[in-house]
UniProtKB/TrEMBL annotation:
Bilayer-spanning residue ranges: none
Keyword Signal on entry: yes
Signal peptide start and end residues: 1-25
Family matches, as SMART domains: Lactamase_B (SM00849)
Domain Metallo-beta-lactamase: 51-222
One function term, GO molecular function aspect: hydrolase activity
Name of this protein: MBL fold metallo-hydrolase
Organism: Ferrimonas aestuarii
Amino acid sequence: MKLTKASILMSASLLLATASSTPLAAAPDFDPSKPVMTELKSGVYQYSQFFYNSLVVVTDEGVIVTDPSGEVRAEAMWEAIQALTSKPVKYVIYSHDHFDHSRGGQIFKAQGAEFVSQEKCTELLSRDLEDRVVEPDITYEDKYAIKLGDKQVDLHYFGPNDGDCMSVIHMPKEKVLLAMDWHLPGYVNEPYRLNTHNYVAILNTFERTLQQLEFDTVISGHMPSSSPQAFQEDHRFHKALFDAVWSGIQAGKTTEELKKSIKLPEFSHWRGYEENLPAHIERMAYSIWHGN
Ligand SMILES: [Zn+2]
C-alpha cells in the first residue's frame, strides 16, 4: 500500500474526528487496516493500525519506533515513516514481551536498528515458536534513556504489569507518555486478556507513573486516543476496583459473592462494563490473594 503524506494526514484527521465522540470499534466506516500517522508534538507521532498504537519519533539522526506488531504492520509503518523522513529507524523499543506486539521487526533490523527492552523480556521473547521476534540488542534493569538527535525517550521499569517486563515509555521534554496494555481508557476489556494481567502491580504502575512522570499527552496500547484526564480516570477505575475487592475480602466474602455484589457506577458507561466487570473482580481478587 503506497501512502502519501496527504493521505496520512487526512486519515489522521478522520480518526481524530471519530475518536473524540465514539469508541473506534463503533464507527461503522472505520477500517482498522488503514495506517494512521498522527503528529502529537513536533517530530513525535502516534502510528495506529489494526488497533495497535506505536510511538514514532523522527529526528535529524534517525527514527525511534515502538512495537512492530507483525510484519504487515511493520512494513506499512516503515512506508508511513518514509513519507516523513529519509532517515532510517535506529531504535525499536519493545514495550513488553507479548508476541502480538514484538513480532515483525526484521524490516528495521535490516536497516541497522538496535532493539531495546527491559531485561526480563529477553528470555520470554526467545520462546517464540514461530521465530518471528528480533532479539533485543540492549536491555536494562530499572531505567534506560535513548538519546537521538534532539529527542530523548526514557524507559522505566515499574515492576510486573501485564506480563513481567513492561516498559513505561516517556519523553520527558515533550511530556508524552506511552502506556501500553495496562491503559485502555473507557474500556473494561475482554476476560481472555486478563491471564497475565497482574492487577495489583498495574495499580502500582499507575501510582508510580503519576508520582514520577510529567505528561500532557498519552498514547494507549490499543485505544484510538487517550489524554491525561482519561489516564486519571483509568487510575480511579483500578483504585476503585482494588478498594472494593480488598474490603470485600477483609469482610470474609468469597470471590463468587464479590462478583455478584460489586458495582462501580462511575464506570458504568465504559465499554464492556456489564459483561466483563465480574471477570475483572475475579482477577483482582486473585491478584490480591496470590500476589500476581
Ligand atoms: Zn496488547
